[in-house]
Design brief:
Nuclear Transport Factor 2, Chain: A; Nuclear transport factor 2 family protein; alpha+beta; 6 strands; NTF2-like_dom_sf; single chain; 3 helices; about 25% helix
Length: about 140
Amino acid sequence: MSLLTETDLAEIGAVLPRLYAAVGWSAAKAPDWDAFRRCCHRQAMLVPMGSGAATPVLLDAFVAAMEGQRSSGAVGSLDEVELGHRVEGYGNLASVRSGFVATIDGIDRRGVTFAHLVREEGRWLILAAAWENEREEAPLPAGLI
């Protein structure tokens, strides 16, 4: 295959915004875990960097952990929106850098996700994604948003 087409770029660029929209919840809206799973490869590895150490989690374990936070009330509301992204790729592989803002219980937190996507059966799917939230001592550079 050759370099990515405009259609590929549009399809790849839409995956993380769909993922962010699916994971969110509020008192009036539940997360859409089916839509979330449709964004990911069945063996996807998700890696939150909350403590500065990698904590790899498989897709179903991530969904279970997030659902646990929601159902226990530990997190009352979550809304994530993409601020911007950059896509690079070749053939059936793509890498996306996506700046986001997550509003958790009314508090905004920016961050960046680095995701690796693969084309499988004509669909672009997240194979692995790692993300880190902005910290006071490490603000996000403008180039990452």
